[in-house]
Write a structure and sequence with these properties.
Layout (H helix, E strand, L loop, with lengths): L11 E4 L6 H16 L4 E7 L5 H13 L5 E8 L2 H10 L4 E5 L8 E7 L5 E2 L1 H11 L1
Parallel strand pairs: 2-3, 2-4
Antiparallel strand pairs: 1-5, 4-5, 5-6
Helix pairs in contact: 1-2, 1-4
């Protein structure tokens, strides 16, 4: 079940694993996979930071993206900084991207930053609308 309070103005973040966990990541990936997949054969870059829960959340969001029935080509880059992620979304001319990170928040937190083409930010509240309409 998704906790609406984790969807902030600029990103998605919450306490890991109480508010944000593998189930949440799977649902976010599933909704965004359908959203990005509407363009046809979409390319989505997925990255993560070094937080303790990031590898699990990374795998779960990728699993959710895969549920878009072959309409999303996933480019998993693994461990990366946020600036590296933004540059790769642009260089690879991706439809969008998701990075698992809680940025400057304490280590108990985790989250996601989502971007569209040209690494243009898609805010957390917008992501909530997207996934609600695409689950």
């Amino acid at each position: 079940m998704i906790t609406p309070g984790i969807f902030k103005a600029y990103d998605i973040r919450g306490m890991y694993p109480a508010e944000l966990n593998n189930e949440t990541a799977l649902e976010i990936g599933r909704g965004l996979g359908r959203f990005f997949g509407k363009t046809g054969r979409a390319k989505v870059v997925v990255a993560r930071d070094g937080r303790i829960g990031s590898p699990e959340l990374y795998r779960a969001v990728i699993e959710g993206l895969r549920s878009a029935n072959g309409k999303v080509r996933i480019v998993g880059i693994g461990l990366a900084t946020t600036p590296m992620f933004y540059v790769l979304v642009q260089l690879l001319k991706a439809t969008g991207g998701i990075i698992v990170t809680a940025s400057h928040n304490p280590r108990e937190w985790n989250g996601f930053k989502v971007v569209g083409q040209n690494a243009e930010m898609i805010g957390g509240r917008e992501v909530l609308k997207i996934i609600t309409n695409n689950l």
